[in-house]
Amino acid sequence: MILVSSCLAALELRYNGTHCLDHKIRKLIEEEKAITVCPELLGGFSTPREPAEIIGGTGEDVLDGKAKVVEKSGRDVTELYIKGAYTTLKKAVDVNATVIVLKEYSPSCGSSMIYNGEFIGEKIAGNGVTAALLKRNGLQVISDKQFADNLVEII
Fold first, then answer.
1. 150: part of which helix (H) or strand (E)?
2. I need a labelling partner for 130 at 20 to 30 A (CA). Which of 67, 85, 140, 148 fits?
3. Structurally, how many domains does the chain consist of?
4. Can you give the pLDDT at residue 151?
5. What is the pTM of this model?
6. Phi, psi of 11 (to 5 degrees)
7. Tens digits of residue pLDDT in 75-87
């Protein structure tokens, strides 16, 4: 089974209430080859919600207690991101996910690039909290950007 970020399947769950439809992912959902997950909703957030970024590092640093996830207004939401990551990990294990496709740049789902924590639109290399946890547990995580290039290998 393939696990995918819900927003990639046209579910309007992003922080601003929008989606990032990927037609190939939507087709996999319809063919019952993939299921959706939103770590942020699993962590306790609602839609819409305030944008958040990792301050002081990457998802690995958040898991290690060396960085935090903060909303633009300054509210620390680290624990909600960690809760969502662990709930997503459980779901991935429960469905025996062979690959997880996550939305790039998210403080939760970014799997190679995230925003730099200054809320100015700049990106840095790194994983979001959920991507970091999934990778630490030996799961194959790719971004939506990598997905199109690897479609044949994944299915």
1. helix 144-154
2. 148
3. 1
4. 54
5. 0.95
6. -80, 130
7. 999 999 999 999 9
